[in-house]
Amino acid sequence: MSASRRPIRSRVLAAAVVLAVLLLFGGRVFDFLGRQMLYPAPAFAVPSPPPVPLEEVRLELGSGGGEVIGWAFEHPPDAERDRPRTAVVFFHGNGENLATMQLAGLYDDFERLGVHFLAVDYPGYGRSRGTPSEASLVAAGEAGLAWLERRFPDSPKAVAGWSLGAAVAVQVARRQGARVDRLALLSAWDDLTSLAAAHFPRWLVSMGLPDRYDSLAAAPEIAAPTLMIHGTRDQIIPIVHGERLYAAFGERARMVRVPDAGHNDLLARPVVWEELARFLR
């Protein structure tokens, strides 16, 4: 009988060891995996200098936060204009960087809007130094807004973002208050915990989600007029999450639902740029 019990005892001992390891290191493992999923910085190299007519901008985050890189475009002066152009800081999705934005033609799209703009790479993305996190991404966004204020002091300021970038834009707008004149959110979620729970078990979300990006809680604190654009067939950030955020903004926001658009193809739809042009001008 003692011999037959050895395999059982061995399995119990092995299970106990695995449980102890999970208790000791499981949180770190899940946190690491969560960060890899939330911040999958692409391997595309970001050149320096950027292609003409873009300008490289270096933003110091301060307090040891390192330096992040942005690419900017400034329209030449136009004596016939009766008001300054809007200046926009844009935050890309979690799987993009400045170089992939160029490959997608997004700088041309922004230039056609008739606005000055700055696109910011997140810490740990491209040639930006630092580690990506909610705090560091928002700090990069605030540094981008401050740069616009110095470069275009007379221009209305707009903050815009797509997907993860929309969540960053919400937090920047909440923290900066009256310094933000317009807020444009493309494929925005309500809060990251709710979104993640729609794709993964809640116990895994609670252990492995490193940041929260609670846009739903931030929305009532934002006074800036807000434009939201969302694809009706978005399977990554289902439109129900955008609808919840839209309801939290109330009368300050307008929601544009793009029929049959998904997540990754939203910015390829002309209606998105038509709506942005009207809103930002």
Q: Could you please say which CATH topology applies here? A: Rossmann fold
Q: Could you tell me how far the N terminus lies from the C terminus, measured between alpha carbons in angstroms?
A: 84 Å
Question: What is the number of beta strands?
Answer: 8
Poorly predicted runs are 1-6, 18-27
Number of domains: 1
Shape: globular
Under CATH at level 1, the class stands as: Alpha Beta
Give helix and strand order, one letter per element, not per position. HEEEHHEHEHEHHHEHEH
Instruction: Report the major sheet.
Output: 8 strands, mixed
The CATH superfamily label reads: Alpha/Beta hydrolase fold, catalytic domain
What radius of gyration results from the CA coordinates? Answer: 22 Å
Q: Strand order of the main beta sheet, please?
A: 1-2-4-3-5-6-7-8
- Architecture, CATH level 2? 3-Layer(aba) Sandwich
Tell me what you see in this structure.
With 281 residues, the chain is of the alpha/beta class. The chain has a single domain (39-280), classed as 3-Layer(aba) Sandwich (Rossmann fold), CATH 3.40.50.1820. It has helices at 2-38, 98-103, 106-112, 134-151, 164-176, 192-197, 202-208, 215-218, 239-249, 270-280; strands at residues 55-60, 67-73, 87-91, 116-120, 157-162, 182-186, 226-231, 253-258. Helix 9 links the parallel strand 7 (226-231) and strand 8 (253-258). Helix 4 crosses helix 5.
